[in-house]
Each structure stands twice: as C-alpha cells, then as structure tokens.
Amino acid sequence: MMTSPTEKRITSFDVARHAGVSRSVVSRAFTKGATISDTARAKVLQSADELGYQVNYLARGLQTKHSNLVGIVASALDTPYRARQVRIAAQECIKRGFRPILLTAESAVESEKLTSLLFNYNVAGVIITSAEPSSKIITECNRLSIPIVMVNRGSDISGADCVQMDIDQAGALAYQMLNEAGARRLAVLMPSVESYSVSGRARAFVKTCKKHKTPALIFTSSDQSYNAGLDAAQEIGPRIDTLDGIFCATDLLALGLLDGLRHKWNIEVPEKLSVVGCDDIEQASWCSYKLSTIRQDADEQAIAAVSIMLKRIEDPTMATQTYIQNLTPLHRGTTKRPIRK
C-alpha cells in the first residue's frame, strides 16, 4: 500500500519513542560496528518494522564526515563486460553494508564533473571504471579522505589505488594462442579511440609479434562494439589471403568480425583464419560463436576494487595499492587445435 503524500514520514525520533529508547540507540542500531546490546537492537528493529521506518542515508551522510554511500562512475554500460563488472561491484558494496550510487560518464570531463558531484554526498569511497579523471579530482579525494579506486585505468596515477588486468600478459597470450594454432601471418583489430586497457593490450600484442620477428598488420575500428567489428570485416575480408590469424582487442569486436567474415565473405573460421578475442563475455561461449579468447574475470576485478576501497577506509595511511589480475587463455572453436611439438 502506497503512503499518502500528506502522511507524515516516520523519523528516528518516532522509532525511539515507540521502542522506549533514546535516539542515539536507534542510530547505533543501524550503524555497522556500533556498540549496542542485542536486546536493544531487537527492540529498535521491531519498532522500525512496525512503523515502516527507512534510514535516510543521505541525511546521515550530511550529518557526519562520511556516509555509507559509495559512488561508482562507469562508462560503456552497453557492453556486457562492463555491465557485469558494475553489477558485481554494486552487489559487493551492498553485501559489505554500503549503498552504491551509479553515475555514467563517457569522457574524462564527464567523469571529473560527476566525481566532484559525489563530494556533496559525503561518500565513503569512489570506484571509477570510466575515463580517467584529472589529478585535481584525485587530489581533492585525498584531501577529503575519500578512497578512490581506478579499474583498468592505469597504475601510474598518483594518489589513487588501482585494479587492472595485465595488458602485457594479454598481448603475449594472444600471440601465443595464435602461434599454437599455427597462424604466422598475423593482424590485430583495435579501436581508433584510445583507452588504457583496450589499446594497451593491442599494442602489447604488436610488441610481442615484433619480439618474435613476426610482423602484424594493424586494422582500426570506430569503437570496440559488435557493429564496429562487423564494419571492419569489409576491410579485412578482401585481404584475407594475407592473413591466417587475428587478435581482436575485445570480444564484441571479434563477434562482429566473425559474423561479417562468415556471412558477407563466406570465410571459414578457423579453417581459413584463426580469431582470438579478449574479455570472455558471456556471448563468447555461445554455440554460434565459440570464440577463443582471453579471460579477464569481471567479478574478481569488481570484488578487488571494493576490497581495496574498504581497506583504505580502515587505514587511510596505507601505501598505494595496485592489484594486477592474471589472465587465462581459452581455446574454443575459432582457433585451430593447438599444435604440440
């Protein structure tokens, strides 16, 4: 039953009167780690339930130095990997007793504006998976003692903790997987728009190819989406005779490329071309694709980001943390069976 607009909102004072306790006891009952007896907590929770009381976390944050609100600033939520990463981070925050606020930003300017907006809510911490904010914003977080964790944004950011995939390992694994499949004429498909992890893994692949004296053609796409991969097939298809293996910087690019090559150019994969992606999104394992890829665990990254944030809350003076995630190669149906010597 919905509450009438004219009906009085239940406050902590109402709960205190109903339970026969002080308002400070009510506050402690809803504060994680606060000292309160089991009997008093039970009385408060029962009264709160009977009255329909809801904690006003925003007001609590404004009255104290920090609230239990956590800002998550994210971009590219239309991609399966990022959507899962953000969902797991939000779930982990709730599990640990915090309330996530999700804000979306597709550029460094937006990321900076939204992060500064969170300061008004006395957030307990900030997790950023979007474009990297300026050093000014990070400095302000440090000044306000607000932990800030960057996910896949680089490890050379002074004043921020970081969680990231090992981009050098990604490039090396992509080369290894194609090499094991017998591919020797290699290429990489990467977005023209710069980003730390996606551009970084593609460049690491090219670097590894050079190390092994194997030249790699570089194809660029408009972005890292399925449609961008589909469009790239128009450029790659006519040059298929010069290639036998390609690394796509994201799974979505790989899936689009696969459909474009198969349906528009009648190119058989992996017979004619081995294809390796990166991320291991759910769609990569679908029967229609069975994409060979490099797995970066979205759940692991999200949980690590929340864990580091909580450690920073407990110990603001600890040394800057950088969590490097190891990756896993997954041979499926788009690479030939690895050649064993």
TrEMBL record:
Q: Which PROSITE patterns does the UniProt entry name for this protein?
A: HTH_LACI_2
Checking Pfam families in the record gives: LacI, Peripla_BP_3
SMART domains under this entry? HTH_LACI
Which SUPFAM superfamilies does the entry link to?
lambda repressor-like DNA-binding domains, Periplasmic binding protein-like I
HTH lacI-type domain residues are 10-64
The alphabetical list of record keywords is:
DNA-binding, Repressor, Transcription, Transcription regulation
Q: Which GO terms describe its molecular function?
A: DNA-binding transcription factor activity; transcription cis-regulatory region binding
Q: Which InterPro entries does the annotation name?
A: HTH_LacI (IPR000843), LacI/GalR-like_sensor (IPR046335), Lambda_DNA-bd_dom_sf (IPR010982), Peripla_BP_I (IPR028082)
Give the PANTHER family listed for this entry: LACI-RELATED TRANSCRIPTIONAL REPRESSOR, RIBOSE OPERON REPRESSOR
Protein name in the entry = HTH lacI-type domain-containing protein
Instruction: Give the species.
Output: hydrothermal vent metagenome
